[in-house]
Amino acid sequence: MMDRDVTPVDEWRLIEAKPGGIPLGVAETLFAQSNGYIGMRANPAEGRDSAEHGTFINGLHETWHIRHAEDAYGLAREGQSIINAPDSKAMRLYIDDEPLRLGNAEVLDYERSLDFRDGILRRRFTWRTPGGKNVRVTSERMVSFQEKHVAVMSLEVELLDSDAAVAINSQILNRQDGEDEYHDSDAAQGSELDPRRAETLHDRVLNPTFQAESGSERSTLAFRCARSKMTVACAMDHEYTVTTPDGEAPFIEIDQRTEQDSAQVLYHVNAPKGTVIRLEKFVSYHSSRHVRGEELAFRCARTLNRVRRIGLRTLQENQKEWLERFWDRSDVVIHNQPELQQAVRWNIWQLIQASARAEFQGIPAKGMTGTGYGGHYFWDTEIYVLPFLSYTSPSFARNALRFRWDMLEAAWSRADELAHDGALFPWRTINGMESSAYYAAGTAQYHIDADIVYALMKYVYATGDVDFLLREGTDLLLSTARFWMSLGFFDAERKEFQIHSVTGPDEYNTVVNNNLYTNVMAQYNLDAAADVIRQMMTERPEAFREVCHRYNLEMAEVEEWEEAAAKMYIPFNEELGIHPQDDQFLLRKRWNLDDPEAGPKRPLLLHYHPLTIYRHQIIKQADVVLALFLQGNKFTDEEKRADYDYYDPLTTGDSSLSAVVQSIVAAELGYGEKAIDFFIRGLYVDLANLHGNAADGVHVASAGGVWQSLVYGFGGFRDYGGAFTIDPRLPDEWEGLTYRVTIYGCRLRVTVRRRTVEVVVEEGDHALGPIHIAGHEVIVGAEPITIVVGERPEHEPPAESEPDEEDLARIAEQADSPSDASPPAAPKGTGMQGDPAESKTAKK
Ligand code: BGC
After folding, report:
1. Which ligand 1 atom is at minimum distance from the Cα of 365?
2. Does the reported pTM lie above 0.90?
3. N or C: which end of the chain has fewer CB within 10 A?
């Protein structure tokens, strides 16, 4: 998948062994660093060459008026785009007035690496200057996990064989509006069509509000966004050392220049051969919706004072310890597979980068690594990232859920605007308002409400955080349950509850009736809300009374939710024995994906008008198949197999959210080869740039899916309704797999080998259980338990065949009359019984 001369294998690092070995924009993404609050693309310190300069502060965005050529009531009005925060990465180097520019420099012994154990991006090489002098250049950059507002970097220059005049120009630059002195073209913002890219903002965004210098080495700039009125301040401070062979300190001249769009601190020194000049740079960012730039600048100063006292080396050490603890609870090991291991860790690294300090913000689809999708938050967080966080870093999962809860006000208003009850969360957003201009593939994805509830319940089942459930959780449950009741309806005989005019996860079939995924997830949502309220009634009467009072809730309403859930229409086609994706799906024309002549060009969304796509039986991403995974206890094995077999050939995988899900379900069905194939596609989606747009930022949802493929797919972990089971499917070519999940504060280590599963509580003070492992019920404690796993049959998916004309006519007839099809008895949604904190753990 990767050129190993350029990116050699290292289980803990991503390495670029040749300058320019990886395409520029892709490398900027792959080596990008973030703590979830500050994000920095891996642009070189010298500024050039860059495909897209990127420095991001989570939540810092500009708004713009969406001009709909044909307007309609309730369409999203305000676009939101993540913006380029002032760039503090620049530390330009000049030797005898010649600027270093890697693109045309003569460079020896080059290596750039990102180490997942300390989060430091390192670069070292020897530069043979145009004047023939050899200079060793070493640089480091780190965005701090412990200090949310801080990044630190260093540049070290060693004159190997000559005296030289050395100049280092350390800068903060407003790249959102200004251009740097090289007029770098912004290649990634090209004008060609790609809806996955961010909107380009043409008007000035960042208006300077404050500039300051302090001492000769500290500078601060502050700005306010023209429309969103958000403010941001960035400050830098420095520390230098010069070491000469004879110990004589040469004279260092420092110039400082601070303007509205840039701040510079320049160091000049005429140094003898053998001198080492080291410049350390401390950077702080603060941003706000309300606070003035001057106050933010003051906060930056406070932060800088503190971290300067700590010192760069100690900050690096602290980060290493922080990450050691992270890996202890989150690492997944594929035994003796260094290549895969490197890629697995890179993906897990993306998850922590995107989420750790997001705190009062969401987790953008691209993390903080690029401007793709405008920096928006989608359902990607809840379905793809939160399971990982809930089982490895639950406090980060809680923050992300709290952030959704914080949006409730806007979600209530949005539901009201669309004539619904309860809350409707935006399909894509930064500030809580719907930002999806194309409602068919946006607002109509109402499933976002149920996705949030799904993530909430998973978090609660994993942690037993009943307090959160009773406070924020009930708000989310009630508001979404009410929403579904007003969106869906009972048929005339009150036999079925149907939901019309929705879009499921598959964006190639929009505004359809009874999308299977949506109905199944809404059913889950309604059941979860009813179960929690009933449980509160008996076990937390005070909290129950309070919530009933606040929401004017009566049990008759809860009974309605239960009835709607029980009667939820689940489309099923007897003839094919499958769940149609929606009421119209089976009527559509098939489009053979593999036909080189008549088959479509990929990805479809870049080559065909939406209407061309919509009239075909073709899907962008797992939809029914995703439901089979998320709500797997509601489907029989036979149904799962039939559904998977039907949808697999129709799935383009044009969304990176698909392969990982297909891998999990394929693994469950015993389709070993498919499972591995889809896993590899998810694993390398960015590392091998499989979708061609890694330059726009990391596919964070896919990274979350990689973890899920390992833990749920091959690791066989399931947690329906907080009942934990492990039924692994180790690929033939793997010796073993080790993963960890933290449940109720206890860390469970699971090691899967060919014929055994070993489980142990490796951290925590109580036993866990009962857990069903390969059919055995066990209570797991500090002593490892080994369970023998029976041989598993491998299955082959059927060869693809097109249904003939007669078949199609019959199918169409059935699909036409959804009410005639008898819905399979969907098992009742899951819920908690008793206090989850008591029922799922057995004390030692
Ligand atoms: C997918 C969505 C996803 C979005 C952001 C789209 O291509 O179809 O499901 O939420 O990308 O990752």
Report:
1. 12
2. yes
3. C
